[in-house]
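Retro notes (design track)

What went well: tokenization of the new backbones is finally stable.
What didn't: we kept losing track of which sequence belonged to which structure.
Fix going forward: every design gets posted as structure first, then sequence, in one message. First example under the new rule, 237 residues:
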């Protein structure tokens, strides 16, 4: 991450390149550049990285001039027909005990590993808990104070092909820019209804900041006292 007080969000969709510098604390737009295009896609509707090079380089130089800082890293938002949604349910027998965070963590890690093992060609971009089921009753949010014989979790994994993410990593690395996180634009756009006045980059900021309390995040271990799963979910914030 850069030491600037703002983050750079760059979005590609079918009609527009959008790059914004957003205040890291409140998500307010410091500066924004939009470029319309029609010829950056191949016949199968995939982004053509060769034709993207010049407008991306120009947009980055423009945002650097406006913000007064060099762009070292970005949050990259992509709209692509190659995105894949995988639905999976995992079950745990609980013997009428209460559910703990570690139990949920275990199930999600298990489901994630299943997706990775079965789809080595995919990169997981988002993990969303869709439903909790305790003793055949459904819950939107996890009831930690209930005992149950068994419980299960329905999880959605939004994925991009690894060859796509690697192309973008190499593309920006050639410009000495690191990608902090990939964001699926189609997923972010689901929150337009409650954020009608925001542009796509602001929605990306909201995704990273946890607008969807059902999305799972993984934060590395910082100290010996705070484990890897201390902040696994926005749900537990």
């Amino acid at each position: 991450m850069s030491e600037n007080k703002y983050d750079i969000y760059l979005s590609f969709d079918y009609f527009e390149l959008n790059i914004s510098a957003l205040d890291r604390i409140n998500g307010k737009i410091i500066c924004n550049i939009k470029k319309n295009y029609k010829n950056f896609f191949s016949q199968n509707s995939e982004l053509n990285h060769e034709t993207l090079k010049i407008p991306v380089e120009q947009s980055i130089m423009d945002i650097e001039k406006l913000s007064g800082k060099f762009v070292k890293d970005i949050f990259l938002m992509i709209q692509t027909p190659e995105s894949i949604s995988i639905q999976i349910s995992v079950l745990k027998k609980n013997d009428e005990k209460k559910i703990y965070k570690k139990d949920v963590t275990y199930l999600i890690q298990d489901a994630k590993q299943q997706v990775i093992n079965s789809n080595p060609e995919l990169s997981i971009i988002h993990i969303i808990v869709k439903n909790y089921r305790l003793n055949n009753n459904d819950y939107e949010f996890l009831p930690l104070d209930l005992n149950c014989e068994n419980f299960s979790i329905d999880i959605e994994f939004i994925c991009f092909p690894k060859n796509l993410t690697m192309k973008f990593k190499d593309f920006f690395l050639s410009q000495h820019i690191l990608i902090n996180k990939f964001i699926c634009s189609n997923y972010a756009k689901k929150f337009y209804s409650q954020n009608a006045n925001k542009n796509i980059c602001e929605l990306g900021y909201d995704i990273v900041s946890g607008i969807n309390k059902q999305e799972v995040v993984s934060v590395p271990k910082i100290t010996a006292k705070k484990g890897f799963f201390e902040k696994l979910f926005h749900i537990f914030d």
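Added context from the reviewer: The mean pLDDT is 84.
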